[in-house]
Specification:
This protein has about 220 residues and is of the alpha/beta class. The chain has 2 domains: about 150 residues, HAD superfamily/HAD-like (Rossmann fold); about 60 residues, DNA polymerase, domain 1 (Orthogonal Bundle). It contains 10 helices and 6 strands. It has a 6-stranded parallel beta sheet, sandwiched between helices. Strand 4, helix 8 and strand 5 form a beta-alpha-beta unit. Helix 1 crosses helix 4 and helix 3 packs across helix 4. The longest helix is centred in the N-terminal third of the chain and has 18 residues. The mean pLDDT is about 95.
Length: about 220
Amino acid sequence: MTTAKSIIIFDWDGTLMDSVPRIVSCMQKMALEAGLQVPAESAIQNIIGLSLPVALELLFDCHEPDEQQKLIAIYRRYYVDEDATPSPLFAGALELLDELKSRGHVLAVATGKAREGLERAWTETNTRNYFSASCCAYEAPSKPDPTMLQRILVETQYTPDAAFMIGDSRFDLRMAAAAGVPSIGITHGVHDADTLSAESPVYIADDLLNLSLWLQRVHAETA
């Protein structure tokens, strides 16, 4: 179990930021513009957390890199400029980050977003200063490959047993298991408690307040 000096690694979309509705909307608009069959919301939710090329392979059987890049360019145009679906931080996110930093935790992000997307989200939410490390799509293989977490741990000089990985998808928890990192699931994103439970997390939270209370108990027990 991690201690007061541990590192806590967050997924971003669906974990700290309520961006799932915007991702779904943009993916459906991208498919419509490209003349592809528009996937159902549930199908898109099931690939959130993966890097976009991998997601496109699963959703549209699109394997050609050139075609993937054309689709990604359409998707990003909608996400950055043309889709107005709100994507705020979840309630309690800033309070949780403040609390964890005040207790001496190192914080990091492992995300399927590209670096440009994460930096934009950090700027929009004024949260870059909370995080000591991050790893994004194209900087490592897509989740659930463990490389993202392994690189963060090497950079911050923590061992897997001194970390938590917190995420809303089974890909987050599978990545954690592959890296030997204890995981925590959160159900306000893409996958429900039953789906997350199948990946053997140490805890499943309903929201960030519930997560905060649990982490406080862990801190009290290990301080």
